Amino acid sequence: MKLTFIGIFCCVFIVSNSVLANQNNVSKQRQKELFHIVKQDCGSCHGMTLKGGLGTAILPEDLKNKPIDFLTFTIINGRPGTAMPPWKEILTPIEAKWIAQELKKGTFK
Amino acid sequence: MKYQIQLICICILTLSLNACMNTTPDNLRATGDMGVVIERATGQVQIVNHTSKTTLAHIDGLGDLSHASIVYSRDQRFAYVFGRDGGLTKIDILKDQIDKRIIQSGNSIGGAISQDGKLVAVSNYTPGGVKVFDADTLELIADISATKLLGHAKNKDGTTKRSKVVGLVDAPGQKFVFSLFDSDEIWVADFSKPQYHITKYTDIGRAPYDALISPDGRYYIAGLFGEDGMALIDLWHPENGVKHILKNYGKGDKKLPVYKMPHLEGWAMAGEFAFVPAVGQHKVLVINTRTWQQAGEIKVHGQPVFVMAQPDNRYVWVNFAFPRNDTIQIIDTQSNSLIKTLKPGKGVLHMEFTPRGEHVWMSVRDENIIQIYDTKQQQLLKQIPATHPSGIFFTNRAHQIGL
Question: Does the ipTM surpass 0.85?
């Protein structure tokens, strides 16, 4: 019984990991689109160079202490009470995570 | 022989001088039908002529032009370009060159020119406030710091943050009016005397994000992001303070995420009705300007960004926020109904009408073109290439209050 349970758990673990691995690959074409969205549409509040506007600055030095998961969550769900909207209708969580990672790297500068 | 050579030399010199100068009698150029288009990604502007529908020149080196805007000197010769990086550039559109350029702050959002044309004001995010310059020399005349934000994190340099300033316009009586996004205020700066004077209105409503002034310069209205409604000041009766209008608007409605704040520049009016973009809803609101009550609403394709009336006010043209920004809709101001939907292409950012309104130019950012339509049949007349065009500004703005 116990073994079966561990077996199922392992299977689920392996399957979910492989699904995630696949989804982690944001296609080159989609990366190009996301790059454009970050520069132009995030840029309409955060500034096209991302150094801030009505929205906060989101350059790597500004995000130093913000974990990738926190940034991903913020992109997907927005920040209630501020002008930051939830982007979940536009972006998948994997895409949001890709943006969060690249923001921290300074890719969009 | 010697004289012949001299004569030929003089002739060549005269001819080449003539060819070089813009101001020879055959080559005079007036500026009343010209304009400047922002090409934001490349830090360039394009100087255009809206009679010949052509590009006259490109000027580069203007820095970060995302969200850049322009005002004109009253002689319509100089364009003041307000860049996002705090750059203020004075362009001579007769000579196709930069006359002066300064970096006046770290992060700015727009500007205005005074009633007498002698002062240019810039509203800044960082450090929050308004700076006023001599329109001729760009020398600093006044530095107005916005309200300090004590509960907030400090600036990177350790100084206390100040409220960001938005919605800066000129008003009659040599005044500038502007809104403070973080401290919920509207300030009126009066420059009619040598020592300027500021009147502050506080608690005007949460998070004013942009503002407009009516074409007669009487009403200043700030849109509020943090709550429903708008804040209004009657500048003929400033003693009456701020009136909160349309406050029931949006109650009970589930708002959509706002991916792009609407712009309140331009005051679309027909008779006693004004047309304004709703925030977070696929609607244009109709307001009765006698009662300041909502008189109606028009369902549209997306969240409106610019709601602009033709100069004759017969039709109102609307563009939309991402992701629906490939569309323009046209509203008949008599029946408040949609008459046409256009699909110019991805990223329609701005529109500008010719002074008497026979044509409208629109920038289609992602297609790298400017499109020109006639306003009667709404037919595409011509396309002009431009690199990621955003704002289009014609020189007739020089003589309009608030623009």
Answer: no
